[in-house]
Amino acid sequence: MHTILSKKSLSPNVTRLDVRAPRIAQIRRPGQFVIVRSQKGHERIPLTIADSDAACGTIALVVQAVGKTTRELVALGVGDVIRDVSGPLGNPTELLESGRALCVGGGVGTAVVHPIAKALRESGVSVSSVIGGRAKEWVIFADELRRCGEVVVCTDDGSDGRRGFVTDAVREMLEAGGVDIVYAVGPVPMMRAVAELTRPLGVRTIVSLNPVMVDGTGMCGGCRVDVGGEMKFACVEGPEFDGHQVDFDLLADRLKTYHEFERRVDACADGKCLIRR
Amino acid sequence: MPEQEAGRRSGNFEEVNLGFTEQAALLEAQRCIQCREAKCIRACPVRVDIPRFIKRLTDGDLPGAAASLFGDNMLPAVSGRVCPQEQQCEGACVRGCKGQSVAIGYLERFVADWARRRGDGAPLAPVAASGRKVAVVGAGPAGLTAAGELAAQGHDVTVFEALHKPGGVLVYGIPEFRLPKAIVQAEVDRLVKAGVKIRCNVVVGRTYTVPELRADFDAVFIANGAGLPVFMGVPGENLKGVYSANEYLTRVNLMKAHDLENANTPVLRGRRVAVVGGGNVAMDAVRTAKRLGAESAMIVYRRSKEEMPARVEEIAHAEHEGIDFQLLVAPLAVEGDAKRWVCGLRCRRMALGAPDASGRRKPEPIADSEFTLDCDVVVVAIGTRANPLLTATCPELCLDKRGNIVVDADGMTSLPGVFAGGDIVRGAATVILAMGDGKRAAKSISRYFAAASPSAASASDGDLSRV
Lengths: 277, 467
Fold this sequence. Notes:
The complex is a heterodimer of chains A (277) and B (467). Chain A has 277 residues and is an alpha/beta fold. Chain A is built from nine helices and 16 strands. Chain A folds into three domains: 88 residues, Elongation Factor Tu (Ef-tu), domain 3 (Beta Barrel); 109 residues, Rossmann fold (3-Layer(aba) Sandwich), CATH 3.40.50; 69 residues, no CATH class. In chain A, 52% of the residues are buried. Chain B has a five-stranded parallel β-sheet with strand order 3-2-1-4-16, sandwiched between helices. In chain B, strands 6-14-7-8-9 form a five-stranded parallel β-sheet. Classes of the chains: A alpha/beta (277), B alpha/beta (467).
């Protein structure tokens, strides 16, 4: 049982939960995630560890409420318990040892980028971040990232920082030169666009993939992705891969597997049950 | 064995076999001729003294029969249901030379169920504490068996399970209709009552490493299972609608995807489901597909029925339930529609040639025999390979070329005090072989302790229980 010690709304559909999990807090490294099952009968879902406090024995989970399971998870309050938290899963991020890193975060992906930027900063690597969201209220982890270095915020409507996509700012920074590695985490189209910007320049680009997953230990194979023409299981061999090798079309397509199911569940919640059809 | 009628059961997830009545069990037990040199015992991977428990049954001594059976076998209600008896005890039964062998599996199940229904489930006798701590990695058949045997020796046992529920393949893999989960839970409860501690959501290799466990425990038994599913390596395997059997079965068995009222986990319910493979896992998957409402649930197997590794009873049950067997058929590609959903399985027909290395006749393709099976879900049930998570974080463990852990005749690995068994050693094998490994390892661990100086007991009192 894992008690929720604090809860904070980060954006209209993103919530931060600080959860007691002493062992995971003690050993987790950037890039790793947990699998959470909030209560009996619920789905097992992978969630990013955005931060941790080993002394307090807590990990920070960032949840985007997109379906029934995640909505029920963020409906929990301080003092409530999450039944199962398994991890830390996945391989830690390959961290640049010296030089300059560009961290790119889109939407909830910014929560994945944060621990990477923090670790890089702590090891003395120079960090710049470009993060984006639809509008001001959708931008998350901006203050935390500012502690790691320069941050450029991009919003679709210009309500915070620059107007436009993160890719515009990334392009300019790459053109200015001096970037040794790019870490890009966000929606699939964003990661693909960033990888296409860095490919001709030969700048190493690490992306973090979020495929459908059940156990997180390699057993189900549901998280298989195509990297450089080879089948990889994101939970065992990832979740981070070379962005220039990833088949993003396949990832985006496989993520749609349960969209119809989720649509029906949502309709059910509105009193119009379609599941049995 | 009385069973649910095929037409009815293929629409529900309740157990197929209903179990012997006491009268039927007694009649069957009397068919055992009590061989002095009982071949059935030697054919049993956990060496159950079969004539002894059957004798007590015929004597009307059910508690004695249960005590005898549970003394030899930690999980008889499980093995009575899932063992390939025809290749083991029943295959060796002298009565089988002329006519029917004794239905040992059904009798085992009867006695185990009797004990469980009585409530006490043949409790493990309390023993004096040895002062030794043992970590067991994995709460599947090997781990649970070892835990029970070790607790019976007085050792302080903690089982670490990666999933949120103990049972391993018994809960995520084998369906409810073949092995009710309440039975697995009863067996787990029995171990817990005997003092075994079970810590779920601990992925050894991630949450803790084997060296960390070794530092806190006097011995470690690794039984973390087979791990990664093998795919066919044909085009189209990443289309939406292609599952590994592990994923398909886990969604239904562990996550209860069939129970829409109480579970959130989705599973694609195909109209026409093709399951590739001929083992027990393939039979479980195809019969699950039928129960999820598939109009057509098909087995696609490249050899003939005689070569199928599945239990004879599972194949027979599948046939009765209307499973379509596409035999001597090998998949070439999964075909998808414009939106990349599965819409067919491209196959070709095979013929059996000369025996291969496995002793089975090798399937060879027939020229110009390609055809497409219409289907919207494909389940790949062709085996598993070793999971690297644990072994990658313990490089001192000696592995074979497939990544499985190498053990000696006592089940000990290249690391002193670290033992291993089940699928992580054997590759994909059976529940009963895993249980046999668990039993052997428990014996070896006690011998290992006896050989070490008694004062060395309990390496530390570290607490690995909090995650």
